[in-house]
Amino acid sequence: MDQHSDMELFITIIDAGGISAAARQLGITHSAISKRISRLEHRLKCQLLVRTTRGITATEAGLRYYGETKTIVEQIRLIESDMMNESKIPHGTLKVSASNAFGRLRIVPATIEFMKKNPAVNVDLTLTDKIVDLEKDRFDVAIRSGTLGDSSLIARKLTANERIICASPEYLSKAGLPQNVDDLKKHHCLNLNFPSSFDTWEFIGGRQGNANCQIAFSCNSVEALYMACMAGVGIARLPEFLVKEDLSAGRLISLLNDSRLSTGSSIYAVRLPTNILPAKTRSYIDHLLKWFNTEN
Description:
- The chain is an alpha/beta fold.
- It folds into 3 domains: 3-86, Arc Repressor Mutant, subunit A; 92-161 and 265-295, D-Maltodextrin-Binding Protein, domain 2; 163-254, Periplasmic binding protein-like II (D-Maltodextrin-Binding Protein, domain 2, 3-Layer(aba) Sandwich).
- It is built from 9 helices and 14 strands.
- The strands form 4 sheets. A 5-stranded mixed sheet has the order 4-3-5-14-6, covered by helices on one side. Strands 11-8-12-7-13 form a 5-stranded mixed sheet.
- Helix 1 packs across helix 4.
- The two termini are 57 Å apart.
């Protein structure tokens, strides 16, 4: 039995001045209301209403029940109203995950702008190149790159994510310029030190050029690989957003462009599926979509 609805029913009867008036107001039959009031009185083990030929009046217990439950019902309505309003206004703590490099260069500036527009939202941002478990680690949004494949996650594309195989002029002057995919076996390569599609250097024909090369340096950070590449340690496959200016300035040289298979990957904002999306999450993803659309 719904005690809350019984309270509301009793309050409506008193406020309307009778069962018949309450029945008309609520759109239910007189007999249905009478049965529910009888069950309520039986449960409370006291009489709430006195029925006479002239109508009904509340007993002393009924007046007490009316006064105290009306306050409770009004509080419940206020709470529900506040929660419904809050569901429309971004607020609370938003937990976000992004990779180190992309997060620092692109997500942090976008997030700062979001917080300026939404002062009631506190952002808890984790920068890591590892894939986080949104459900286990309770993340609201994760920024991920690559081809997502089959997934129950809801994904929104933010921007393209081309990856470039490159090296510094310093390294190439010592090790030589690779002319084809097989030449990579003679070179030092830079990889992440945990399983990731980032380390799959795909070439035309399904070949993976870095499969047999010497791993000169590995790390759990793409930014660290970038720094090692810039320092002449070896060849790396790095995100275009990270090396674009260096390629234009000649600080890095793009390699094997004719053999390289375009990654065709993108960067996404992903979240867990939910029937009701919190305003903070919805607003943040919408902000990122607008941010990258304007930026590009």
